[in-house]
Amino acid sequence: MIMILRRFKRDKAAVIGVLIVFLVLLLAVLGPVLSSGDPAEQNLREKRLGPSLKHPFGTDAYGRDILTRILYGARLTVVAGLTVVTASMIIGIFLGVISGYWGGLVDNLIMRIMDFTLSMPYFFLAILIVAILGPALSNAIIAVTITRIPQYARVVRSETLKLKRAGYVEAAMAMGASNTRIILEHIIPNLVGSIIVLSTVGIASAVTMVAALSFLGMGAQPPTAEWGLMLSEGRNYITSDPHMTIIPGAVLALFVLGLNLMGDGLRDTLDPRLK
Amino acid sequence: MTWLKFCEAERKVWSMAGRKNQSSGTLKYAIKRILMIFPLLFMIMSVVFIMLHFAPGDPAILMLGPEATQEKILHIRQELGLDNPLHIQYWDFVKKLVLEGDLGNSYQSGRPVVSEIARTLPISAQLAVTALTISIVVSLLIGVISAVRQYSMIDLFTKIFLMIGVSMPVFWLGLVFIVIFSLKLGWFPSSGWGTFRHLVLPAVTLAAYPTAALTRLTRSSMLEVIRQDYIRTARSKGLSEGATIFKHALKNAFIPVITMIGVELTILIGGSILTETVFAIPGLGRMTVTAVFARDYAVIRGSILTVATLVAIINLMVDLSYTLFDPRIRY
């Protein structure tokens, strides 16, 4: 563990990534403390102002303070990213272990369903799901979660197939350990490395996709303070007040950059073969 | 001779025949793969049909608008066969699609979905192909240079550029380009379609992510190949550096890149939804988004089916193209 930490610390890019991610997490947690305002408070006399001392990031079309909205938006973004990754991870591990461990008909069935979800670009699939469920932030999160399940399922399945033939698993089987026990104690602990790597990189694209759906109007609905939605609201005023679009997008890009740097660093330290 | 032994003998004969004429093996594989596309598409079509069947909203009301009379609604329902049970509706849909190539009519415009797709698909295809060309050319160039000059300043800049390129949300990048290149500098139009100048900004926006991903792969793949023995041999026999890199190294480093090009192309199709929305381009992606908001299920069904077909064809072409670049791979 210390070895891993030391190797990770030597990777400057990864450390920068961790710093960015922690900064955003901190802002998300401390948002209401740091900013006095209400993200939904309108002040029509101060609408569409550029950055100033009172409003460091300016105000939007309803005179709402953009900095406050970004701080509150950070919460939604972090929660959305974590929800997508946790949910798709749990379902993906479940499906992957079942299909790798038991094989046969169940395996075939699960993998054909996964092939179906992989037969379309993720974003088209997400839009199809939102089309059925209706536009809302929760539905966007469900849609993105579904598109991410196959990646976990496939990786976990192939790792399980390998582990099943490992000596200690065969020994456990010979000793008469129950299937649940073998899966929980011998197979899942050995999947942790590849799952961590998939998840950190996964949060980055989950966050981007949820924001993209909100940008299209298929995710968060007004007046929610969500980064993707703020971008699309600012778009109408892009000719006169570009700061309304540029700033929320820049924050989103920075967060995604941090996640990617962190994910790359983790991959290099946990799985040096992939470098 | 038992049946099992017979099978064994049979297999041996076949494998010998295969060895004699290996290109027929590839052909057989290609035909098999092409035939396998149909069950996949059939499954996708069925799942999408059933899923959209349970989606909220009555197509008849969606077509006629909320003020339609009861009589008219009943008439349309009859005409579309909406009162029939699901399996009969499905059978009618499949029959029409297979026999007449008919995907029904758009609920919004009333025009056939097939002609809507025929109008929008070429636009999206032009955008995607331009973006893909940009990203392949740029990524091969930068990837090779930064691999050959590993740890140089160029390599460092490439790495930074890659990380930023992968992280920027495509819709934000498009808006930033609009602010800089159309509003401030006035070089390119900010929206619309038709001329070359309309194509530049969206194509570059859409190319950003695939370019970064492909450059990264080209670089790492080149780094691996450059250390191989045959590259040292090529250099030591006095071959020029350019010939070594492009003839010996790049050709081998290119195989993993091809797979990635296929993957990137499907990501690109997804990304075109956002790019087309940002730049107001009347392509397939924007049509799909509009259809989702209008609950125009006929159009949604059509565009999903189109995209799934395209992805299946792309994957097939990627798999077959391996044989072109690596004669060792045979099916």
Number of strands of chain A: 0
N-to-C span of chain A: 19 Å
Low-confidence stretches of chain B: 16-21
CATH H-level name of the largest domain in chain B... which superfamily?
MetI-like
Largest interface: A-B, 43 and 46 residues
Shape of chain B: flat
| Architecture (CATH level 2) name of the largest domain in chain B | Orthogonal Bundle
User: What sequence of helices (H) and strands (E) makes up the elements of chain B?
Assistant: HHHHHHHHHHHHH
Q: What is the domain tally of chain B?
A: 2
CATH architecture of chain A: Orthogonal Bundle
Number of helices of chain B: 13
Task: Provide the structure class of chain A.
Answer: mainly alpha
Strand content of chain B: under 5%
Gyration radius of chain A (Cα, Å) is 22 Å
Biggest sheet descriptor of chain B: none
CATH superfamily of chain A: MetI-like
Task: Say what the CATH topology of the largest domain in chain B is.
Answer: MetI-like fold
Number of strands of chain B: 0
The CA-CA distance between the termini of chain B, in Å, is: 30 Å
Word description of this protein:
The complex is a heterodimer of chains A (275) and B (331). Chain A has helices spanning 2-10, 12-34, 66-102, 104-118, 122-133, 137-164, 167-174, 179-187, 192-216, 227-235, 243-270. With 275 residues, chain A is an all-alpha fold. Chain A has a single domain (2-274), classed as MetI-like (MetI-like fold, Orthogonal Bundle), CATH 1.10.3720.10. Chain A starts with a helix and ends in a 5-residue tail after the last helix. The model of chain A has no long low-confidence stretch (mean pLDDT 84). Chain B folds into two domains: 2-100, no CATH class; 113-325, Orthogonal Bundle (MetI-like fold). Chain B is built from 13 helices and no strands. Chain B has helices at residues 3-20, 22-53, 59-64, 70-80, 86-100, 113-148, 153-167, 170-184, 196-226, 229-236, 241-278, 284-294, 297-325. In chain B, α6 (113-148) runs parallel beside α13, α8 crosses α9 (196-226) and α9 (196-226) crosses α11 (241-278). The relative contact order of chain B is 0.12. Chain A binds chain B through residues 13, 112, 115-116, 119-124, 127-128, 130-132, 134-135, 204, 208, 211-212, 215-218, 228, 231, 235, 238-239, 242, 245-246, 249-250, 252-253, 256-257, 259-261, 264, and chain B through 40, 43-44, 47-48, 51-52, 54-56, 163-164, 166-172, 175-176, 178-179, 183, 266-267, 269-271, 273-274, 277, 288-289, 291-293, 295, 297, 300, 303-304, 307-308, 311-312.
